[in-house]
Known about the structure:
Layout: H1 10-26, E1 41-45, H2 51-60, E2 65-70, H3 73-86, E3 91-95, E4 108-114, H4 124-133, E5 135-146, E6 152-154, H5 161-173, H6 180-190, E7 194-206, H7 214-217, H8 219-224, H9 230-245, E8 251-262
Parallel strand pairs: 1-2, 1-4, 2-3, 4-5
Antiparallel strand pairs: 5-8, 6-8, 7-8
Amino acid sequence: MAEYALAISDAEIERYLLMAERSRHTDGRHWSSAGLVPGAVVADVGCGPAATSVLLASVVGPAGRVIGVERDEQALAAGREVVAAAGVRNVELRRGEATDTGLPSGSVDVVVMRHVLAHNGPDEQRIVDHVSGLVRPGGHVFLVDVDATAIRMLDADPDLDDLNSTYLELHRRRGNDLQTGLRLGRLLRRAGLTVVLHEGSYEVLTVPPGLRPPSWAARAAMLAEGLASPADVDRWEQAFRRMDVAETRPTGFLPQFVAIGAVPA
Ligand SMILES: C[S@@+](CC[C@H](N)C(=O)[O-])C[C@H]1O[C@@H](n2cnc3c(N)ncnc32)[C@H](O)[C@@H]1O
């Protein structure tokens, strides 16, 4: 089982909520083709702190429901708070593995999996095979993932230049290849699904003060594996602080891929 590198914190939860909200614009136009419509039953696998689950709850409405599956207790606890704060009643969170969710086969209309496969290099295909089996005939699997090797920044602090490459090295050592977004169509096809969409785009984001990337949430893991020293972490922290107060806001260019697979009717 691949180890998960990102520690949950308030700043991480804020980032998840921001990215979920932005997904309305980045991939929201594809939701209806994937069956994310009022009344749908959706499994959000690897739901983290449930930011996407809550968003999807508003898409499927009171006649639909969202089952968030997550293996990390800390993320689940944060998810319960996010669900309570949102006041939605059609989200249920449960503990489970993406290779073995415990959900009955053919029981949902749509499986959504956002930014999960990149953390599961050795298990990518097993996960997509399993979640495809959860979907009823004619339903869909909706995947979103990155190509973290192609992230670009403008006006970022030069002391952060090595943070992303160190993060990529951490994943490489764990058997993860963060070009996952490129493989989404192939993973769906090999699971026996018809690929109805596989496309990618750059999300262009003006970085607000206080926002930290996933690589920052992995600093404890990078320290533990000897990939970064306490001095590196200190240098990155100072750089983020300078960026927080910089007049010229940095711009992030985040390559994101969306794929939809249809389960044969
Ligand atoms: C980057 S977060 C994305 C969270 C959510 N999908 C979103 O887009 O807001 C990835 C989440 O997937 C969970 N995860 C990763 N691999 C998993 C697996 N094999 N089984 C269950 N959960 C997993 C992690 O614990 C983490 O909470």
